[in-house]
């Protein structure tokens, strides 16, 4: 789902950066408050796991593949602010190590996947966990992925409208919403399902190991 | 290069932003030539490293642009060149930065971020190594390729084991560093 460098106009990434910087600052404060030296190694491991999950290609119908995101897991275990910051690090590493995503696209990717993804997963989980915890995890992760994918599709589809040459030719991403919405959302229906099941598996494991303080002790 | 790593990193960030402000394919072509010239020895490897992650995206985008041009009958060569060149220049800049900038040294003023980065990088290597071990072990013990279900089950098992091992490993490293007074930041 990552948007690479060169496809997002400055008219998009500069305002996105202006929104992301105060959110990163606030997230850093939350991080300092919530994560002590004891939890830092665990957070680092989960951040690495999110990195691995987002490098993991999932087979899709039609012979194609897509990748998981992993931010839902971070949000459920560490909360949305820490997850946002940790996922930003994942995006930085992916941009600088694997060439997936990019530096100019970082604020947009971080807001779409890190912020919206983490907060959607966190809020939906807390809304639904009284119904059934496992169902809450599945629904929270699935919907969060669709929300993130929707935002990425909207941002990409906006590019030909706001960044054109004098002759009307596109300067950055060339296709509008009629292409981006189905092309990005449809595969993520399958990716969302697969990632929701993966996250549930790891979340239950983390709960058994008492890595989620709020849920510790509830396991029968 | 005599520049310090934080300066190199700042230069890279500035160059990336500057490239997104250039909309003339001829200028981007000159920038690409300049980058290849300045990047020193190992240019083919650098170009390969830059091209690999963006190749499929560019092929997909380019065929889409050509198809749209064919449908509408409008000239698309300019847009095609501009988008391809910009993505390649940015990918080349990033590949060069990855090769010649040590992020540990670039982040020297932010010790907590640096420590986090080091632990995360270590864990990524650990996960990769465990996955490779598992794949090699499975391959050496089976004569037929595993089914998709077996692959998923195997991945889940190794994933959870790797998670346990990763947490244990990271906690041990942190405790060892603390006992040696390395975490008084």
Helix content of chain B: over 70%
Q: Stretches of chain A where pLDDT falls below 50 for ≥5 residues? A: 60-64
Give the oligomer, counting copies of the same chain as homo and different chains as hetero. Answer: heterodimer
Distance between the termini of chain B: 31 Å
Round the mean pLDDT of chain B to the nearest integer and report it.
81
**Using CB atoms under 8 Å apart, which protein chain pair has the greatest interface?**
A-B, 48 and 59 residues
How many individual β-strands of chain A? Answer: 2
How much of the residues of chain B is beta strand, in percent? under 5%
> Regions of chain B with pLDDT < 50 over 5+ consecutive residues?
none
What is the 3D shape of chain B?
flat
Derived from helix and strand composition plus strand pairing, the structural class of chain B reads mainly alpha
- Strand % of chain A is under 5%
Task: Report the radius of gyration of chain A as a whole number of Å.
Answer: 18 Å
Q: Can you give the helix content of chain A as a percent range?
A: over 70%
Radius of gyration of chain B: 23 Å
What does this structure look like?
The complex is a heterodimer of chains A (220) and B (185). With 220 residues, chain A is mainly α. Chain A contains 7 helices and 2 strands; from the N terminus they run ααββααααα. Chain A has a two-stranded antiparallel ribbon. Chain A is globular and about 60 Å long. The termini of chain A are far apart. Mean pLDDT of chain A is 84; it is low at 60-64. Helices cover 81% and strands 0% of the residues of chain B. Chain B has 2 domains: 5-105, no CATH class; 110-179. Chain B has 185 residues and is mostly helical. Chain B contains 7 helices and no strands. In chain B, α6 runs antiparallel to α7 (148-179). Classes of the chains: A mainly alpha (220), B mainly alpha (185). Chains A and B meet through α2, α4 and α7 of A and α1, α3, α4, α6 and α7 of B.
